[in-house]
């Protein structure tokens, strides 16, 4: 289990920021074995700083990162897989050689590195590109190589900063499947992303960070359930003024009226809708992660 506890980090001021900047102001969350954790927030919210502290690239001013109940150390981090937002590939090196090289850096034997690299190339759809230089690859294929580098040593934890950025749907599905397979093997996975629909689809738990503070965290189901649910009613060709006096908003799309409301007597709304016209839809909808995010950071 990966535990991040009360991380704080400030950067000194300079000519453009004489007062300095508080990057993290008490960030705390936990990623459990086999859990995929989505770390979301606006640009500059503190996501990358948090990940860099986890990986030892930056040092926190205070707070602690723990792995398996003990302070995270150098040897532990060597077992982690890290995919930084700024990609770190050698552009002129061939794909297969690159993955093998990083496997050797992680302590694998030449034979083990070659086998792992070959397996990942097949798993991530890079067989036809294995002998191409990285600089000749599309962005999506470079992302696949970067993920292979993070996976080559069979890491105990995956920390991925914007791994799906700029990818087409096929590449997204390929990378998502690879991460889900690792989760099923018990590996904790944390990744940041601005693609909230993707986070909602893939993640077990989510943390929303704003201004260096965690403003919401929990399972996707719990976060959605904690918000007010919306009653949505679609009535076709209704009588004029049928929703007068009801709270909420009515949107007109052709001959359909769509009422969205909350905290009302749903049976009374249903009676009025049925009397007014043909009810095509009547149901309670939970907010999306995008809606929760907007509310949390407002």
Any overview of this molecule?
This protein has 298 residues and is an alpha/beta fold. It has 2 domains: 2-225, P-loop containing nucleotide triphosphate hydrolases (Rossmann fold), CATH 3.40.50.300; 227-297, Alpha-Beta Plaits, CATH 3.30.70. It has helices at 47-54, 74-77, 95-105, 110-123, 139-151, 169-184, 196-202, 220-226, 266-276, 289-297, and strands spanning 2-11, 21-31, 36-40, 62-67, 70-71, 80-83, 157-161, 189-192, 205-210, 213-219, 230-236, 249-253, 256-261, 278-285. The strands form 3 sheets. It has a 6-stranded mixed β-sheet, sandwiched between helices. Strands 2-1-4-5 form a 4-stranded antiparallel β-sheet, covered by helices on one side. 34% of the residues are buried. Residues 2-236 form the ABC transporter domain. It is a peripheral membrane protein. GO terms for molecular function: ATP binding; ATP hydrolysis activity.
Q: Give the oligomer, counting copies of the same chain as homo and different chains as hetero.
A: single chain
Number of domains: 2
Which strand-content bin applies to the residues? 25-35%
The arrangement of helices and strands along the chain is: EEEHEEHEHHHEHEHEEHEEEHEH
Report the CATH C-level class of the largest domain: Alpha Beta
- Here the CATH topology of the largest domain equals Rossmann fold
Helical amount: 25-40%
Low-confidence stretches: none
- What's the architecture of the largest domain, going by CATH? 3-Layer(aba) Sandwich
Write out the strand line-up for the largest beta sheet, numbering strands in chain order. Answer: 6-7-8-3-9-10
The span between the termini is: 31 Å
Structural class: alpha/beta
Average of the residue pLDDT scores:
90
CATH superfamily of the largest domain: P-loop containing nucleotide triphosphate hydrolases
The tally of beta strands, per DSSP, is 14
Rg, Cα atoms, Å: 24 Å
Largest sheet, if any?
6 strands, mixed
Query: How many helices in DSSP terms?
Result: 10
* Apparent shape: elongated
Pfam family, one: DrrA1-3_C
Subcellular location: Cell membrane
Main location: membrane
InterPro entries: AAA+_ATPase, ABC_transporter-like_ATP-bd, ABC_transporter-like_CS, ABC_transporter_ATP-binding, DrrA1/2-like_C, P-loop_NTPase
């Amino acid at each position: 289990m990966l535990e991040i506890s009360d991380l704080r980090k400030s950067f000194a001021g300079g000519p453009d920021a004489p007062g300095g900047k508080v990057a993290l102001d008490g960030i705390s969350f936990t990623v459990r074995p086999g859990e995929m954790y989505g770390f979301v927030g606006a640009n500059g919210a503190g996501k990358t700083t948090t990940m860099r502290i986890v990986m030892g690239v930056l040092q926190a001013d205070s707070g602690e990162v723990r792995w398996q109940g003990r302070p995270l150390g150098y040897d532990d981090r060597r077992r982690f897989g890290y995919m930084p937002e700024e990609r770190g590939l050698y552009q002129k090196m061939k794909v297969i050689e690159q993955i093998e090289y990083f496997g050797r850096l992680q302590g694998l034997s030449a034979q083990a590195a070659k086998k792992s690299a070959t397996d990942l190339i097949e798993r991530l759809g890079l067989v036809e590109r294995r002998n191409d230089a990285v600089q000749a690859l599309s962005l999506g294929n470079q992302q696949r190589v970067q993920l292979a580098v993070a996976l080559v040593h069979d890491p105990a934890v995956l920390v991925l900063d914007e791994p799906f950025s700029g990818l087409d749907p096929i590449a997204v599905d390929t990378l998502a499947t690879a991460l889900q397979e690792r989760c099923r093997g018990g590996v904790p996975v944390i990744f940041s992303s601005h693609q909230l629909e993707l986070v909602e689809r893939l993640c077990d738990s989510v943390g929303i960070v704003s201004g260096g503070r965690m403003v919401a965290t929990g399972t996707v189901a719990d976060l959605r359930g904690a918000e007010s649910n919306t009653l949505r009613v679609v009535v076709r060709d209704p009588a004029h003024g049928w929703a007068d006096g009801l709270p909420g908003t009515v949107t007109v799309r052709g001959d359909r009226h769509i009422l969205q409301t909350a905290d009302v007597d749903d049976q009374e709304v249903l009676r009025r809708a049925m009397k007014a016209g043909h009810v095509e839809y009547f149901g309670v909808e939970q907010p999306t992660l995008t809606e929760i995010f907007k509310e949390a950071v407002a």
